[in-house]
Design goal:
Blueprint: H1 2-19, H2 29-35, E1 44-51, H3 53-56, H4 70-81, E2 86-91, H5 99-104, H6 106-110, E3 117-121, H7 131-147, E4 151-155, H8 171-186, E5 189-191, H9 193-202, E6 211-213, E7 216-217, H10 219-229
Parallel strand pairs: 1-2, 1-3, 3-4, 4-5
Antiparallel strand pairs: 6-7
Helix pairs in contact: 4-10, 7-8
Length: 237
């Protein structure tokens, strides 16, 4: 009997591993449900966007185009769907930052905001770190968020005209692949901005049409990011 039970457990391990993967239909189910609670029973809901210059809204440096950046566009989309919600989208991103300092200030600057959901976006700048350093920093932030009961959405990088984005060996492509792996390993959500940019290019469209400068998106580039985020909030495709 003991051998049979062990065999059944061994066979079930792959299924258990698969069951930890975050799914758009369920991952933020409680958050989305709470968005429809009307006054006086509702509460303030917080989404924090943590990362570098892209969520900060930098366009052609030093211009900051806040209202086309994906945190603001996401905020509008959520509010249009949930008119009774009191929802804040808070940006704790810093232009030029890597995940090293992002992780160092995560508790102080992010968790102090009492987020329900935190978006983490460092892939573009983490090319300045080793892959191991980047993974360690992202894992630290994921662990701290989970310990605080906060839902996490990892974002793969947006575009860079200097990168060979359709080449899997390019440093930016490697960052995207590592972020995908971390999301699946930790059972957290993934907004695959990089794949959206790749698909744009594979369709014969110009990367320049998404960019304000070599490494900062314009409104169209931010919209591609939002389209990857919306399904997690039960919006969009």
């Amino acid at each position: 009997m003991k051998k049979i039970l062990l065999l059944l457990l061994f066979c079930a391990l792959p299924l258990l591993a698969q069951s930890t993967k975050a799914e758009p239909a369920t991952y933020l189910a409680e958050f989305v449900k709470a968005l429809d609670v009307a006054w006086p029973k509702n509460r303030t809901m917080n989404i924090v966007c943590h990362g570098h210059s892209v969520p900060s809204g930098y366009a052609k440096t030093p211009h900051v185009d806040t209202f086309v950046a994906y945190p603001h566009v996401l905020h509008r989309a959520v509010k249009e769907k949930h008119p009774h919600a009191v929802v804040n989208v808070i940006v704790t991103a810093i232009g030029g930052e890597t995940s090293k300092t992002g992780a160092e200030r995560f508790t102080r600057d992010v968790l102090c905001m009492k987020p329900d959901v935190v978006l983490i976006d460092y892939g573009l700048n983490d090319r300045r770190l080793t892959m191991e350093e980047s993974a360690k920093n992202l894992q630290q932030m994921i662990d701290e968020a989970k310990a605080a009961g906060v839902k996490v959405i990892l974002l793969t990088p947006t575009g860079d005209t200097r990168a060979k984005m359709l080449d899997d060996t390019d440093p930016l492509s490697k960052q995207a692949a590592q972020i995908r792996t971390l999301a699946e390993k930790n059972g957290v959500a993934l907004a695959d901005s990089y794949l959206a940019y790749q698909n744009w290019m594979k369709a014969g469209k110009k990367l320049d049409d998404l960019m304000s400068q070599i490494n900062h998106p314009n409104a169209a580039g931010h919209q591609l990011v939002v389209e990857q985020l919306l399904p997690w909030f039960r919006l969009g495709k």
